[in-house]
Specification:
Strand 22 and strand 23 form a beta hairpin. Helix 1 packs antiparallel against helix 2. It is built from two helices and 24 strands. The strands form seven sheets. A four-stranded antiparallel β-sheet has the order 1-24-23-22, with no helix packed on it. It has a four-stranded antiparallel β-sheet with strand order 4-5-6-7, with no helix packed on it. Helices cover 5% and strands 38% of the residues. It has one domain: Neuraminidase, CATH 2.120.10. The chain is globular, with a radius of gyration of 20 Å. It is mainly beta and 426 residues long. The relative contact order is 0.19.
Amino acid sequence: MSAARESAGNGRKSFATTAGTLTGFRPGLVAIDMLASVALRARAGGVPALLAVVLLAGCQSVPAPTATASRFELAFIGHQVLPHKFRYNDTVVGGLSGIDYDTATHRYWSISDDRSEFGPSRFYELALDLAQFSKAPAPGHAGIAFTGVYTLKRPDGSVFADYSKDQANAADPESIRVHAPSGRLVWSSEGDRIVAAGKPPVLVDPHVWEVERDGRFVRALPVPDKFRASAANRGVRRNLAFEGISFTPDAATLYVAMENALLQDGPIPTLGNGSASRILEYDYASGEVRAEFVYEVSPIPVPPKEPGKFADNGISEILAIDRNRLLVMERSYAQGAGNTIRLFDVDLSGATNVAQFDSLAGKRYVPATKRLLFDFATLPIRLDNLEGMTWGPRLSNGNRTLIFVSDDNFSESQINLFVALEVRER
């Protein structure tokens, strides 16, 4: 979540972007594919990683080959909207930043990014009846039933602090996943980084924690030093850290995505340039980081209504398709223009493992390939700050579903939006 998005005004609307697909290959693709295959062998241990980097001749970021045509077509099932400050079990439901479908219970887990200001940092269990989702402009909230709420606990069993009173001991929850083999949950926090002249810095490292279903701490996955919060010009930026996480279908690998680039890796997106975000690949059993890949976040797609006003773009969630492919949701907000939400089909198989690089500056690498799969501006609904994404249940025709949820920032001008899409595989 970006702090600037919390102050978004009334009258939001979504603007369509140029939605298209890339059906051909770029000139020189064969040569690039050869280089990408070298990088893939380096990732698998076939050749030394340094040799692979040397072979990847060209500019700092070697152009990635165009991804092959997607196997997916997405169709709108419907949506629902929770009332503002909807209450469940003495909590205010809002800030829903992550969601995951539990195939064992056929229910969902959704995490709130409330930093213990409206209640303890927490996550919910809920049921969604997709048959009651509606395509009407004002759909209501039938079919959304909350069944449990659980407090996120620190390793010593205590709760996280209220951010307004103790910034250094608060959490910033962003994503949640079920680890199916163990039945436990995994969640990410962006941490915090506040560096202001004349004041002590507030430095809270981002984290990925495994917890029991009631929120009790089990273990923390190690975070490489390059991702830690620092008062120097390195590490994570404030509100732009561990935004998305996803298990591969076999639950052996966990991917963790940065919203934007590390400070030492490069700038955040502008209207003319993107941002080199890293995606970490964890071996989940050992907790070791196997690899890191670069995903190039697109430039800001729509300018703010008035020049010089706030606008951003970044990864808001990821979802594994298989061992090498991800769905990546980019979420942009431009003041006076609203949200632009786009879904990309991403292939990591030809990307360089950049884990050895403390900084990407001056380095040569092949980023992940990406292909625009879906633009939410095509839906006949009011868009908002979509942050959560999960595979849902299969429909009666056997097709899978995708479920999305928005973070309303507890703002009266925003909405708690649930969206359901049908996945038609070609």
